[in-house]
Structures are given as structure tokens and as C-alpha cells.
Design goal:
- By secondary structure, the chain is mainly α.
- Helices cover 72% and strands 0% of the residues.
- It is built from 13 helices and no strands.
- It has helices at residues 2-27, 46-80, 92-106, 112-136, 144-166, 170-177, 193-204, 206-212, 216-221, 226-248, 254-266, 270-294, 303-320.
- α2 (46-80) crosses α11 (254-266).
- The protein starts with a helix and ends in a 7-residue tail after the last helix.
- 42% of the residues are buried.
């Protein structure tokens, strides 16, 4: 009976995973340009060029960004020991954005990989500050943890907005912070493969992150170095966030939705759940991107807006459900 129950609980996950190839295939043929099976091999070859230069890179970028941000959100929740935390509710994204603004002001000619490195450094500093704050404040409710993160992110975002306004760069800053895959082309998304590599590293260290989620004392008692595990988690979260923000902009709440859905069905053992988190994160981003391309066709709604709407509703659900205070 328990085994049957576990198998049944995984059925929705299996169905979602099986739908991902269909979503990826549909993503190749959704858009303003006429790309279909009948036009791919036309005389002018335009449809084939659009497919190779734009649609395939965009689909790959969607998969890589979705999987990376979902895994980053899972690691953050384990480090903060709170289900309401993810890069956009802990100041990580805002810190990465401040790093990008700093590069735009002082070294605009840096290559993209250098911009990502600077953004990752700022993201790591912001996340470390968030973790330091929540460890020093006597938190009587787990709902205060995301509140602290949102307030910290608001302060960092205010600093970024002030300097962007002061130096007439608000429009450029908005382009970096709005999640949008419409500009993804061949040669402009390859940085996201770094997030894939870090996702693999996260899976290799999944057991250690699971132990670290039980606290400093427990981790130390079984012979592991808690600080090193947290440092590795910070590096993965910061670099993945920076790479995604530099390439396609901010995708809010993605690291909140997927880890919580998977955790409700599979629990908190990351070795078991992390592949599902990455897979469903990729599928969710694919689905939201297709919706954004169709809802106001032929115009396109940025994916950051679509995911933000869905994520905010899910966030409210997590806050208001009966067992939220003991999550």
C-alpha cells in the first residue's frame, strides 16, 4: 500500500516530464515567422534559417534557464531552511542586477563572461548578507524570512534605480531585469551551458545539501564541513542567477514554484528530487514562453511577466494554506 501511494504521487510528475518533448517541439514552430514542416525546405530556405538561428537556440535556452533557476531555488531553500526563499525573494537577483549596472557604468566594454562573473560576485555577496541577517534575527515565524529577503532586495533595487536614474541608464537596466527570450539567437545563449554544468555539480553534491538543510550542528556531528557546503551552494546559486540574468533577464518565482511542487510529492531528499526539479523547471518555462507568444499574438508577452503572475499566485497559496506556518 505505501509503495502504491508513492507511485501514485509521482504520476503527475511523470506526466509533466513526458509532456516536455512535446512542449519543446511546439516551441520550435510558435512565433510570427512562418516556420512549419511544409515551409522548412522551401526554395528560399528562410524558414530553415529562422529555425536554426532563432527557434532552436531559444528552445535550448529555455530548457537550460528553467532547469538552472529551479535547482538554484532548491539549494537556497535548503541553505535558508525555508520553503519561501528563492533568488528573487532573497536579494540574489537584485544583487546580480546591481553588479551588471556597475559593469555598465565603469567597464561597459567587458565581454559577456566577465559581466557574468561580476554579477555572480555581487549575487554571492547579496545572498551571503541575506543569510547572515536571518541568522542574527530571532525569527518567530517562517513567514518573516521571505519578508526580510524582499525588503533586502527592495533596498538593493532602490540603490540600482537611483544610480541608473542618475546616469540616465534606466532603460538599459530595465532591459536587463525583464525576463525575455525574444532576443535569444545562435551565439548569444551559449553562456547558459554554464548553468547546466552547475546543475550537474549540484546533483553530485545533493546529499551534502540535504544534510546541510538539517542545520550546522547536525552537519558537523556527522563529520561534514557546514561552511564549505554553504559556500558551494552560494557559488552555484550566484553563478546560475548571474548567467540567467545576463543572458535573458530576471525570471521571478521560478525557484519558488517548482521546488515546492516537487517537495510536496517527493520530500526533501535532493538526490531523489533534484532531477525532477530540473526537468519540471525546464517544462514550466517552456509552457510559460509558449503562452507568452500566443496570448497577444502576433505580439509577445515577456516570460518574466507570465512567470511572475503564476508565481505570485502560487506564493500567496503557500502563504495562506493551513499548514504554511509549519512548512
Amino acid at each position: 500500500m505505501p509503495r502504491a501511494s508513492r507511485d501514485w504521487s509521482q504520476a503527475p510528475l511523470v506526466l509533466c516530464a513526458l509532456s516536455i518533448p512535446l512542449l519543446a517541439f511546439a516551441s520550435l514552430f510558435v512565433g510570427v515567422s512562418d516556420v512549419s514542416l511544409t515551409t522548412l525546405f522551401g526554395d528560399d530556405g528562410r524558414a530553415l534559417q529562422v529555425l536554426l538561428i532563432s527557434r532552436i537556440p531559444r528552445t535550448i535556452a529555455l530548457v537550460l534557464a528553467g532547469a538552472g533557476m529551479a535547482v538554484a531555488g532548491t539549494i537556497m531553500q535548503m541553505m535558508a531552511r525555508n520553503r519561501f526563499v528563492e533568488p528573487s525573494t532573497a536579494g540574489t537577483v537584485e544583487s546580480a542586477t546591481l553588479g551588471i549596472l556597475t559593469v555598465m557604468l565603469f567597464a561597459p566594454g567587458l565581454p559577456v563572461i566577465a559581466k557574468a562573473a561580476v554579477a555572480a560576485t555581487f549575487a554571492m555577496a547579496g545572498t551571503s548578507l541575506f543569510l547572515a541577517i536571518i541568522r542574527r534575527i530571532p525569527l518567530h515565524s517562517i513567514l518573516l524570512v521571505p519578508l526580510v529577503g524582499i525588503m533586502l532586495g527592495g533596498v538593493i533595487n532602490a540603490v540600482s534605480t537611483f544610480f541608473a536614474y542618475r546616469f540616465d541608464m534606466l532603460q538599459s537596466l530595465g532591459a536587463w531585469t525583464s525576463g525575455d527570450f525574444s532576443g535569444v539567437l545562435r551565439g548569444r545563449y551559449e553562456l547558459l551551458w554554464i548553468s547546466f554544468a552547475l546543475t550537474v555539480v549540484a546533483y553530485i553534491a545533493a546529499g551534502r545539501f540535504t544534510v546541510a538543510g538539517m542545520g550546522d550542528d547536525f552537519t558537523t556531528n556527522i563529520g561534514l564541513n557546514y561552511r564549505r557546503i554553504v559556500a558551494l551552494g552560494l557559488a552555484i546559486v550566484s553563478m546560475v542567477t548571474a548567467v540567467v540574468v545576463v543572458t535573458v533577464g530576471m525570471i521571478p518565482f521560478l525557484g519558488l514554484i517548482i521546488p515546492n511542487v516537487v517537495s510536496m510529492m517527493l520530500g526533501d531528499n535532493l538526490k531523489r528530487s533534484l532531477p525532477w526539479v530540473a526537468t519540471l523547471g525546464a517544462g514550466f518555462v517552456l509552457a510559460c514562453d509558449i503562452v507568452g507568444r500566443l496570448i497577444l499574438y502576433p505580439y509577445e508577452v515577456p516570460i518574466g511577466t507570465v512567470v511572475g503572475v503564476v508565481g505570485s499566485v502560487f506564493f500567496l497559496y503557500l502563504l495562506l494554506r493551513k499548514n504554511a506556518r509549519v512548512a
